[in-house]
Design a protein that fits this description.
With about 575 residues, the chain is mostly beta strands. Helices cover about 0% and strands about 35% of the residues.
């Protein structure tokens, strides 16, 4: 869920930070951080206090989030701090922090159109990154035709491993890039080998079938042949997401591997044991595949093709394991929209870990994270003089299938100047049974009886009307019609009550899928409203979102995501 929070002047004049509580009354310390859908984690000491903070890049919305480690009375927790976010460039697909020049400051690695862009960290007191440069890899493994000095390649949607594979202290780049099967490509950082300054980073492709691994469909094999391997720079059709994470699982000094794949709906993570030390071999070779590294109970909770991160997040000096959503399936709804950041605490050591599942909602358990598509609205539901909060959501798509939207009600148990919101209901008005899609609520007195009635905009462009048949302090909402005033907009109706012409009557503004504002004027009265259409594009406002994806002629390959043009407007 991505949730923005704006306190309107006409609603609040706040003198303190709003408090949010769960159903048990416990304070949500990260309530307004916005939720996490496809997060990628990197440690970074932003405030230079000696304790690592968290840099998070969420592929959903290409959003950077910063969490600062704060110690109070000997207990360290993360606090959301958006003040650092503007220091980072706009990214997509992946953004991670790794120190490539060994100056003690993590540098920024990010996706750039099937390649990789590197920004050098030149910070002093605040994050500052030198203008990025594209990375190149010289091929020395001539299995087939290959042009030297090709850009370092990365398929959109897959998550590479940026890791010191060869033990020379600099960062190598390991990824998947084959059209037949899915072999692992080892791009070796050769700065140290060539005696170059570490800031002059360069790569050589030293192994196109690293570790002897190959994947065909849902099957992973080892000791795969490596002849005639062709690496392609564009993503093939229907290419599955792949993720990699290196670590030493058994303390023998070589690189074991977690391999995530969206080809598998069960056992989505392979563990591959490296036999280099066992066999006294000259290079990394995987000798065992384990599809049951995690327990049966844990497997059912792991996202498909999870992004995997090995960092210390409980401040004990030992790296822990995070498994989070990397894939995004909006068609079969196989991806969790919540409970999607699994934290395994490490009770062992960095080089011989013992992972224990601690929680499925790392960080998000302290946020308002309701799942997919959230539409908030304020209304004084109990008529006590302060604004309550109602949120419409499609919930966890893995469960709801995006077909059972519902309302969540947070009552303001504080005041108008010091709001304190407590979760009262996770299915307010029992709307799940209605199987609505894309609902957006609006509250206003439609019949002049001094209590709030409810309109619900719907995905099909119509608006449902729920009349308050209770009182202003104890409302009871009863469905009156599924097609209020016979109003239909293009789709994704998002109504709001506004007195547009200052005549003392509530008019209707309706956002919609085209990104415009539709204006219906109240030509009736406060007790018997009659809404007449005025315009489909009030003020010429158009709100559009463009997600790009190029189709490469007749090659059969895609670059990044598919093009679609999608507008949504939601007046408040």
């Amino acid at each position: 869920m991505l949730f923005g929070f704006n306190l309107k002047a006409q609603l609040f004049e706040i003198s303190s930070t709003p408090v949010f509580r769960d159903e048990n009354g416990s304070v949500l310390s990260l309530a307004l951080a916005g939720g996490l859908n496809q997060p990628q984690f990197s440690p970074y000491d932003f405030n230079q206090d000696g304790t690592m903070d968290l840099f998070i890049f969420d592929r959903t919305g290409n959003k950077v989030l910063i969490f600062i480690a704060v110690t109070v009375k000997g207990v360290t927790n993360y606090r959301y701090d958006p003040s650092y976010e503007d220091f980072f460039p706009k990214g997509e697909q992946f953004m991670q922090l790794h120190d490539y020049d060994l100056d003690g400051k993590p540098d920024l690695w990010m996706y750039l159109v099937d390649s990789v862009m590197l920004y050098r960290n030149v910070s002093s007191t605040v994050p500052q990154f030198e203008a990025g440069k594209g990375l190149f890899a010289l091929d020395t493994v001539q299995y087939s035709s290959w042009n030297p000095n090709k850009k370092l390649s990365q398929v959109g949607g897959c998550l590479p491993a940026i890791y010191d594979v060869d033990g020379d202290s600099d960062m190598d780049f390991i990824t998947n890039l084959n059209i037949f099967g899915s072999k692992i490509i080892f791009n070796c950082n050769n700065s140290i080998e060539l005696g170059n300054p570490l800031s002059e980073i360069g790569f050589t492709i030293v192994d196109k079938c690293y570790g002897g691994v190959d994947e065909f469909g849902a099957d992973l094999i080892i000791n795969a042949p490596c002849e005639n391997i062709e690496v392609y720079y564009k993503q093939k059709k229907h290419s599955a997401a792949k993720t990699l994470m290196f670590f030493d699982n058994d303390g023998d000094g070589d690189n074991d591997l977690f391999f995530g794949s969206s080809e598998r709906s069960t056992n989505p993570v392979y563990f591959l044991e490296n036999g280099k030390s066992d066999l006294n071999y000259y290079k990394d070779t995987f000798i065992r595949i384990d599809t049951s590294f995690f327990s049966v109970a844990e497997e059912g909770k792991i996202p498909v093709a999870p992004a995997m991160f090995y960092i210390d997040v409980n401040f004990d000096g030992i790296k822990d394991l995070i498994l989070a959503n990397n894939d995004q399936d909006k068609f079969s709804y196989s991806v969790r929209e919540k409970d999607n950041v699994l934290l395994f605490l490490n009770s062992g050591t960095d080089n011989k870990p013992t992972f224990n599942l601690d929680r499925m909602d790392f960080l998000t358990g302290d946020m308002i994270d309701l799942g997919g598509r959230v539409a908030p609205v304020f209304a004084d539901l109990d008529n006590d003089g302060d604004q309550d909060l109602i949120l419409a959501t499609s919930g966890n798509h893995l469960i709801t299938g995006d077909t059972t939207d519902f309302l969540v009600y947070y009552q303001n148990v504080g005041t108008s100047t010091s709001p304190d919101f407590k979760e009262i209901s996770t299915d307010y008005l029992s709307l799940k049974a209605m199987e609505y899609r894309g609902i957006v609520p609006a509250f206003g007195d439609l019949d002049g009886d001094a209590d709030l009635d409810l309109l619900l905009g719907k995905q099909d462009g119509t608006i449902a009307h729920y009349e308050n048949t209770g009182s202003s302090t104890n409302p009871t909402f009863t469905l009156k019609t599924e097609n209020f005033s016979s109003i239909t907009v293009e789709g994704n109706a998002a109504p709001a009550f506004v007195d547009m012409n200052s005549d003392g009557k509530l008019d209707l503004l309706i956002g919609n899928i085209s990104g415009t504002l539709v204006y219906y004027q109240n030509n009736g009265s406060n007790t018997a409203p009659s809404f007449g259409w005025v315009t489909d594009s009030l003020g010429g406002i158009v709100v559009n979102e463009l997600i790009s994806q190029k189709f490469l002629g007749d090659t059969g390959f895609y670059d990044s995501l598919i093009y679609y043009y999608y507008g949504n407007s939601a007046p408040q």
